[in-house]
Amino acid sequence: MKISLFQGILFSVFGLGALIGLFVFSTYTNTGSSKSTIGTVVIWGTLPKDELHAVLTAAAQSNTSLKDVSYVQKNTATLPSDLAAAIATGAAPDLVLTSQENLHTLAKFIAPLSPSTLSASTFLNTFIAEGGLFAAPNGGYYGIPFLVDPLVLFSNQSILSSDAIANPPTTWDALMGLVPKVAQLTPSQQITRGLIALGTYDNIHDARGILSALFLQAGVPLSTYSSGGGLVANLGETGSNTVPPGQSVVGFYTQFADPSKVSYTWNASLPDSQQMFLAGNLALYLGYASEARYLQAANPNLNFEVTPLPQPATASTKVTYGLVYAFMIPRGAKNPVGAYQAASLLTGSSAQAAAALATGLAPAVRSDLASAPADPVAAVAYDEALYAEGWLSPAPADTNQVFSSMINNVISGRSTLDTALVSAASALSSLLQK
Q1: In sequence order, what DSSP letters do the residues of 316-350 get, joined into one string?
Q2: 3-state secondary structure of 390
Q3: Bigger pLDDT: 7 or 246?
Q4: How many C-alpha atoms does 213 have within 13 Å on its Cβ side?
Q5: CA torsion, ordered 230, 235, 237, 241, to nearest 10 deg
Q6: If DSSP states are collapsed to H, E and C, what string results for 273-304?
Q7: What are phi and psi of 72, to 5 degrees?
Q8: Cα 393 from Cα 135, distance rounded (Å)
Q9: Burial class (CB within 10 angstroms; exposed 0-12, middle 13-18, buried 19+) of 201
Q10: What is the DSSP secondary structure assignment for residue 113, as one 8-state letter?
Q11: Which residue has the higher pLDDT, 434 or 35?
């Protein structure tokens, strides 16, 4: 009987699930036991190699079974093609470590863990809520969550203090009220000091994450599974309200780049927002918690504070956007059993603490978030990890292209809010269905 490519992939997935189920654990464990022999495990990932090497060295010192686990850093943009080529030539890694932003693109190369290996109840009780993004549509999980990098608010304390602002804003409404007090403009409307980088796209360092956070705070999921099982975009372009939630999000975001509004504090001619903040010409900067170390090293004289992402004033629950990184076993892994054991041990308490310390990210295991660390940046990241959310997107570069077009069309006047939003949703759905 001739076996199709789809059947071959399906059989390999079932075979891997059975193999792991037989030889590893019937349910998830992260006790850190060193009795098992893991063997050689090669990890490909998108986190910085120096940080991950430090994590693995510390883990191997406390658990010698991890001594043959190694890490190779990969470029996010080329990871899917690199992995496809490696699988085709029999040179696949044993684990892939990357965030949910790459999951949709990589899913066809990943063998999901079966429910008999990692049950839904154990998964949900062990990991943060955002880890649920790694649930496979037909049951099981694509990966084991490891670390999360939530979006936070960086504040230039020197600017805020000089303008008699005691604390960074905790709501978007409070933030908007600070624009006239902080932003400095020339008579010709050139911005010499901005309050915050919002409104444009291409010169805002983490625009994809910021827009995602605003959509999620508005209750817009950005992507959902259709009745047929495929992913489709949902940007809140329709709704029962007078103004659909997606239009409210894009309207709020773009107003900061509109010279005719009192909220004007940013435009496309300014430098990259991270560099503007580093230079001391931006009061507030939205970025990931892991950026704190870079900012401190790049400008030791920068007096900044890290606080949670602002929330809608009327929100009953908090939401931020997070990059949740997970270990995934690719098809063609030479040591899938050892790979699963290594991933399990690296999500143990001691390994999670070492990983968080080395990377500046927060653990993805709930129990390891119970006690806030002394470091103020880590304390914010730990708290936000519990309410971080995300979505299954096309490849980051493709998502950037769609979001950039949507925002640029609105601020240039080429499109209205509704047409820009509908066009973006259509483009994202087409990418998600590839």
Answers
A1: SS--EEEEEEEEE-BTT-S-HHHHHHHHHHHTSHH
A2: coil
A3: 246
A4: 30
A5: 110
A6: HHHHHHCCCEEEEEEECCHHHHHHHHCCCCCE
A7: -125, 120
A8: 14
A9: buried
A10: B
A11: 434
Of 126, 59, 144, 134, nearest in space to 365 by CA: 126
Amino acid (one-letter) located at 386 = L
150-321+394-432: CATH topology: D-Maltodextrin-Binding Protein; domain 2 (3.40.190)
Start and end residues for every CATH 3.40.190.10 domain found in the chain = 5-148+323-389, 150-321+394-432
**Is 32's pLDDT higher than 90?**
no
101 phi/psi in degrees, rounded to 5: -65, -20
- In this prediction the pTM is 0.92
Those residues with Cβ within 8 angstroms of residue 390's Cβ, 6 or more apart along the chain or in another chain: 100, 101, 130, 133, 212, 216, 321, 322, 323, 324
Nearest to 211 by CA among 223, 200, 195: 200
Write the pLDDT tens digit of every residue in 277-303: 999 999 999 999 999 999 999 999 999
Going by their DSSP bridges, the two strands 222-225 and 304-308 should be labelled as: unpaired
Nearest by Cα to 315 from 387, 237, 243: 387
Say if residues 250 and 415 touch (Cβ distance below 8 Å).
no
Task: Please give the CATH architecture assigned to the domain spanning 5-148+323-389.
Answer: 3-Layer(aba) Sandwich (3.40)
- Using one digit for the tens of pLDDT, what is the confidence trace for 257-282? 999 999 999 999 999 999 999 999 99
Q: Would you state the structure tokens that stand for residue 332, as one six-digit string?
A: 């063609």
CA 305 to the chain's CA centroid: 21
Cβ atoms of 142 and 103 closer than 8 Å: yes
How confident is the model over 145-164, as pLDDT tens digits? 999 999 999 999 999 999 99
In this predicted structure, what is the pLDDT of residue 242?
82
Q: What kind and span of H or E run contains 43?
A: strand 41-45
Residues in the chain: 434
Neighbours of 386 (CB within 10 A): 18
CB atoms within 10 A of CB 96: 27
